[in-house]
Acetylserotonin O-methyltransferase
Amino acid sequence: MTAAETYTAEDHQAMMSTITGFWVSQLTATLAHLEIAEHLHDGPKTAARIAELAGSDPHATFRLLRAAVDPGLVSHDPETDCFASTSLLDRLRASAPDSLRNVALVWNAPLHWQAWGRFTECVRTGENQVGSAVGRSTFDYLAEHPVEADQFSRAMAELSTPTIREAVVAIEAGPGTTIVDVGGATGAFVLGMLAEHPGTDGLVLDLPHVTAAAEREIAARGMQERCRAVPGDFFEAVPEADLYLVKFVLHDWGDDACIRVLQRCRQAMRPGARVVVVDMVTGAPDDPGTAALMDLNMLAIAPGAREHDLADFDRFFAAAGLARTATTELSPPYCVLEVEAV
């Protein structure tokens, strides 16, 4: 049977949708930039009124909104000629529960966009192309572009929120437990644990320039008596504790660095302590799940970074003197991996 004989219109349309996927990504980012979700939150409006609120060209705004109907981002009423929000668009509203506004912005901003533009060369060489795309490393670039860096931090928090909500319920922590959020940024994970598990106390460990933000978040949640921010480098040392939270950390680093982080936890563990890794887990090649696509994003923007399967994690644990004792699946592709000293 020839390729022509196996051709279907459905395949053609599916491939067209795949090829033009980046158009929808940029459409979505533009909706976020123009705050369309906010403008439609209190009710339907005409394109002209939305353009007035957004400070955009009326005709171009109409064309944007018309295109947003097909992917379900807005709806249109032909009788009133008004566009209305949908539950999908509401994920782009900054104050919405589980908002993804900053994710839409940062993944379509210059750092990611230009790095992905060189992705073929990345696969050909096996080497990250961020340097050739933006002239410097990922974190050096973000240090020089504070607006994009702020969006990046907020995007990571948005991605973490649903996972943290599930994980804090899945992880046991009795009264008297000291919990360290390793590389915890603003401490959302450990603060969630403290709220869920009375009688526990916590520390947020991150680089010195991050601790001020963590202290503000701790104060905002009224947790000053139970939690504090500790400046440090998790490659060098971590505080003594009963429970270590390692969330979305290991995928940022190469194998040796992952093992080193876990070794530092192993060295500081109190008797009976646990390390809990929360991260994406890739499936088998015939059913890899969405983690495989995120793995390509790591390949595109972060040298040495990648998503891991369970065999990878177990290899890291063994090299650090640890062993996995429990695995709890969260919403795919995330898992809670609990490990103890051996």
Summary: The chain has 17 helices and ten strands. The first helix runs from residue 3 to 6.
